[in-house]
Amino acid sequence: MHLAFPSRKSSNPPHYPIRYSRFPTLRRSRAKTIGIGILAAVVLIWVLARLVGSSDGIPPGTPPVVIVTVVDEENYPAGYIQTIKENRIEYAKKHGYATFFPTANDYDLKGAPRSWARVPAVRHAMSNSSSTYFWYLDQNSLIMNPDVDIETHIMNPKKLESMMIKGQPIVPPDSVIKTWPHLKGDQAQLVLTQDAEGLAAGSFIVRRGDWGKFFLDTWYDPLYRSYNFQKADTHALEHIVQWHPTILAKLALIPQRTIDAANKAYAPQGTGAYIEGDFVIRFAGCEQVGRDCVKEAGPFLKQWRTIFDSK
To answer: Where are the membrane-spanning stretches (predicted)?
Structure first.
């Protein structure tokens, strides 16, 4: 508030002397003090914010990645399941990641095939963690190169953009719906690969956030679970990607061997087949009649330990 001062002496002088010339100086001094105090408070708040969490609200010490694997303890040998868990745990320790091993029985699938459990499992992990990335990796897979990390080798925007397959039919070879041609690396929210038959849902990475939750909730919609898709959740995924532009617009498709190399014996014409040094090998389809997941994984169950120990 501005104070008006008299221009002449009053006929009734006050009982105490008034030094008009000091008032502006005092106001300026007080304003300066208040300003310095406000600035100090802002700096303190900023410092505290840096100490207790990052700018995106991630608490300090939060693992950047959670590896999610749904395990089937009912139908597979205990030793095999333990080895699969150890494979993820040892890799996670190297990079400061977290692991999550639910079972299909942890989720009410309403009679849908057990493969659907991957979707609520990732959603479950996302609801209970502030991590940035959630990597779903099927049980019948092994991490073979512990030096590859998710943030640098895959999700780094420049690296991701250099790998993205743009203008690719979602369902090869001739789907009219194709991956987004103008997607940038920092815009991608979902990363996955293709095999010879279509989208490969056995290894995918989704970023934490509202879009990631929307994607998982859409995929797990009761209508899709009750529909008799030939390949259950995999065909449901292909459906929503092709019919929901909001999902297609954030999908980054990368080469199969990046996160989902196939067992050579079952890779058509060697497409996407595992080569020594690849990040992951997945024994896709090994649960089918006439195949044996444990037997197919056998040569690699000890090999991954040898590789890890040598790094």
So the answer is: 31-49
Rounded to whole angstroms, the Cα distance separating 198 from 237 reads 10
Q: What is the pLDDT of residues 181-216, one digit of tens each?
A: 999 999 999 999 999 889 999 999 999 999 999 999
* Rounded distance between C-alpha atoms, residue 267 and residue 121, angstroms: 28
Hey, what amino acid is at 301? L
List all residues 6 or more positions away from 297 whose beta carbon is below 8 Å from its beta carbon: 80, 140, 142, 283, 286
**Quick check: 162 pLDDT over 50?**
yes
Judged on CB neighbours under 10 Å (0-12, 13-18, 19+), 88 is buried
Average pLDDT rounded to a whole number, residues 116-144: 98
The first and second tokens of residue 88, run together, are 């993820």
Spatial CA neighbour of 142 closest among 192, 205, 69 = 69
Mean pLDDT of 12-29: 48
Which residues are CB-neighbours of 294 under 8 A, at least 6 positions away? 76, 77, 80
Between CA 172 and CA 199 the distance in angstroms is 9
Closest listed residue to residue 199, CA positions, set 278, 259, 269, 151: 259
How far is it, in rounded angstroms, from Cα 261 to Cα 279?
Answer: 8
Cα-based distances in Å from 138 to 104, 123, 281? 12, 15, 10
Round to whole Å and give the CA distance between 26 and 139. Answer: 73
101 against 35, higher pLDDT = 101
Domains of the chain, by residue range, sit at 20-52, 65-310
Contact 272, 262 (CB under 8 A): yes
Q: Residue 188 has what DSSP assignment?
A: -
Would you state the pLDDT for residue 278? 98
> 129 with 98: CB under 8 angstroms?
yes
